[in-house]
């Protein structure tokens, strides 16, 4: 015998039908997002909250549902922490030069380059003598929405020091 509450089942069915109707009427051009422009000076900067000297600028007002954007500054002569995460990420280098340890690979980059970090690979980014400014683009919002994102940090240690010479 079905003991579900008929009222709750009816409400659930109505919600589903409303969602279905929205999917069939995607041509509505009325925009409801309040933050179509987010100014870089409105970034909320995290400093000293992680075990590395890099600073992350959170762009909290971007209305993205699946992709996250951050600003990052790595002071000259320093590096981010050694970390891994299950989402993919791209670092776009706005200014500066440096290198990254991505798993057992070391890659060099400069202004205008895109640096890809595969999922669940240990990585660390190093700034040469001048500050590095980057934009980070990652699909972490999608994975957060699915309760499937995970991040780990080993702190301020190189890949070689943590895992030995590999490859």
Describe it for me?
It is a single chain. The protein has 167 residues and is an alpha+beta fold. The protein has a domain at 50-159: Jelly Rolls (Sandwich), CATH 2.60.120.10. It has three helices and eleven strands; from the N terminus they run αββββββββββαβα. It has helices at residues 6-24, 140-145, 159-163; strands at 44-46, 55-58, 68-74, 82-85, 89-95, 97-102, 105-110, 114-117, 123-127, 132-138, 151-155. It has a six-stranded antiparallel beta sheet with strand order 1-2-3-10-5-8, with no helix packed on it. A three-stranded antiparallel beta sheet has the order 7-6-9, with no helix packed on it. β1 and β2 form a beta hairpin. The longest helix is centred in the first third of the chain and has 19 residues, at 6-24. The radius of gyration is 21 Å and the shape is elongated. The chain starts with 5 loop residues before the first helix and ends with a helix. The relative contact order is 0.18.
Shape: elongated
* Helix proportion: 10-25%
How far from one another are the termini?
62 Å
Radius of gyration: 21 Å
CATH topology of the domain at 50-159: Jelly Rolls
Q: What order do the helices and strands follow?
A: HEEEEEEEEEEHEH
């Amino acid at each position: 015998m079905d003991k579900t509450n008929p009222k709750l089942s009816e409400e659930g069915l109505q919600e589903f039908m409303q969602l279905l109707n929205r999917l069939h009427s995607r041509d509505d051009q009325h925009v409801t997002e309040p933050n179509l422009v987010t100014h870089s000076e409105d970034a909320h900067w995290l400093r000293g909250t992680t075990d590395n000297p890099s600073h992350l600028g959170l762009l909290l007002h971007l209305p993205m549902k699946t992709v996250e954007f951050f600003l990052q500054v790595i002071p000259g002569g320093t590096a981010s922490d050694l970390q891994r995460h299950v989402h993919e990420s791209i670092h776009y280098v706005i200014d500066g030069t440096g290198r990254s340890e991505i798993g057992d690979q070391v890659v060099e980059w400069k202004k205008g380059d895109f640096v890809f970090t595969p999922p669940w690979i240990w990585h660390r980014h190093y700034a040469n003598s001048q500050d590095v400014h980057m934009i980070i683009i990652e699909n972490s919002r999608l994975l957060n929405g699915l309760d499937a994102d995970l991040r780990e940090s080993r702190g301020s240690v190189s890949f070689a020091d943590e895992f030995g010479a590999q490859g």
